[in-house]
Write a structure and sequence with these properties.
Elements (H helix, E strand, L loop, with lengths): L1 H14 L2 H29 L2 H18 L16 H36 L11 H21 L3 H24 L4 H27 L8 H10 L2 H28 L1 H39 L1 H28 L1 H9 L4 H20 L5 H4 L3 H25 L4 H29 L11
Helix pairs in contact: 1-2, 2-6, 2-10, 3-5, 3-7, 3-9, 3-10, 4-5, 4-8, 5-7, 6-7, 9-10, 9-15, 10-11, 10-13, 11-13, 12-13, 13-16, 15-16
Length: 440
């Protein structure tokens, strides 16, 4: 019986079916995450909370940069039917990425030291040149990932993700043992991005070198015009979304210092594991099923929404809360006594993590219902609330970092609850789109 199931699973993986591709991507993500998890207890003994704080700020800044590094043209790469048109779109994305990297390099050279001081991470100043390199390598990986998604080369993507985690972990461990300090964490992180980008670029050149002849300035201009809505609309939405995610660690670093940002970063790193492993897989499956039911059976779509939310709450959310309450003692044992504070940070942020785990996998609902306007309003509101709550907690009320985190975690739970109610409200109004009669 087990042998038959194993053979069936192998057949699905070989067939290139939707489920097989999801399993390949989820498996690769799982292996990549496992590498990160395994080395983290070692890294927390090689690096200080201040070192992790520098890494947290670096990742947050890169997160804001990378999401608009190609002005979202890369999102359109899977769309054209013609491979030659798609390769010109890829070239366009690469040209924009190169230009954005040059602009960022000038900005870092002129204002980088002031930015590091503003964010309370002066330790980053000697290594500011890694920010443009990190954006270029991360942006290139993003562009090439969409090309491989277009080509359905999910195994290549999986190999690149594993290569990224393996090289990042190796670099951080090696530089930690040789006592490089914060630059070891940051340098290892960038190394992983570079290796992953090189792997995907090599795969593209090996399989589609013939398409390079079709790249021309005229075709690039045509691609830029055809998909101009992506930089005009999607880039702003993506930047707002990332702003809501990255504003908190940047503000905590600026208000409370690199050490607090380091504890906060480790808390996010550990608590984000179930969201990465489970949430993304659930989101992919939900997106496909809900998109189909939107046209065929809106009532069933509503049931799917509630059923998915209930299962996420019971099977993932409740264990997450129970495990989170034990975090202060577990963190001290696994990561070392100096990291026990990260465990208390997880307790303070449990409402937010619970909201993320239940609501984020369902967040494509408003896009499916073509209510991107409501999603944009929520994204703007979230950024505003994040900045306001952290500023009020620290500046107006004079709260400690832990109390400010608890205020932030509670407010984010409210924001996720509002998003859930917005999605449910729109689902209740949903009816199947009218089917136009076929004129013979």
């Amino acid at each position: 019986m087990l042998r038959a199931r194993f053979d069936a699973l192998q057949q699905r993986l070989r067939s290139g079916s939707f489920l097989g591709n999801v399993l390949i991507l989820a498996g690769g993500t799982g292996v990549a995450q496992a590498l990160v998890v395994l080395v983290t207890p070692i890294l927390t003994r090689l690096y200080t909370p201040d070192d992790f704080g520098v890494l947290t700020v670096f990742i947050s800044v890169l997160g804001l940069m990378i999401v608009v590094s190609a002005l979202r043209y890369e999102i359109a790469i899977p769309l054209p039917a013609s491979p030659s048109f798609a390769i010109n779109l890829t070239a366009l994305s690469g040209v924009i990425l190169l230009g954005m990297t040059m602009i960022l390099s000038v900005f870092v050279a002129v204002f980088g030291a002031d930015l590091a001081t503003l964010l309370s991470v002066p330790q980053l100043t000697p290594y500011l040149w890694l920010i443009p390199l990190g954006m270029f390598s991360g942006g290139a990986f993003q562009i090439l990932s969409y090309w491989h998604i277009r080509e359905r080369r999910f195994k290549r993507l999986t190999q690149a993700k594993i290569g990224q985690s393996a090289s990042m972990a190796s670099g951080q461990l090696l530089m930690g043992w040789t006592q490089w300090g914060a630059v070891g964490l940051v340098g290892g992180y960038v190394l992983g991005r570079v290796i992953a980008g090189v792997m995907l670029f090599y795969a593209l050149m090996r399989s589609h070198r013939d398409l390079l002849d079709s790249i021309s300035l005229a075709n690039i201009r045509l691609a830029a015009s055809r998909y101009r809505r992506f930089p005009l609309l999607s880039s702003w939405s993506a930047l707002l979304n990332q702003g809501g995610l990255q504003a908190a660690p940047l503000l905590f670093a600026a208000f409370f210092g690199a050490g607090v940002a380091g504890w906060f970063g480790l808390a996010q790193r550990v608590a984000g594991i179930p969201l990465t492993l489970i949430g993304r897989s659930v989101s992919q499956v939900y997106l496909g099923e809900a998109s189909r039911l939107r046209n065929e059976n809106p009532v069933a779509m509503r049931r799917l929404f509630l059923r998915t939310a209930t299962k996420l709450f019971l099977y993932v959310g409740v264990p997450l809360v129970i495990g989170g309450l034990l975090a202060p003692w577990v963190f001290g044992f696994i990561f070392g006594d100096q990291w026990r504070t990260s465990g208390w940070y997880i307790v303070a942020l449990l409402p937010m993590f619970l909201g993320q785990m239940v609501v984020t996998p369902l967040s494509q609902t408003l896009n499916i219902l073509e209510r991107q306007d409501l999603q944009l309003i929520w994204d703007i509101s979230r950024v505003t609330v994040v900045v306001a709550v952290i500023w009020i907690g620290h500046k107006a009320l004079g709260l400690s970092s832990l109390s400010t985190l608890a205020l932030y975690g509670g407010s984010m739970f409210v924001m996720y609850a509002i998003l859930f109610l917005m999605m449910w409200g729109q689902l209740r109004k949903t009816t199947a789109p009218p089917v136009k009669p076929i004129v013979r």
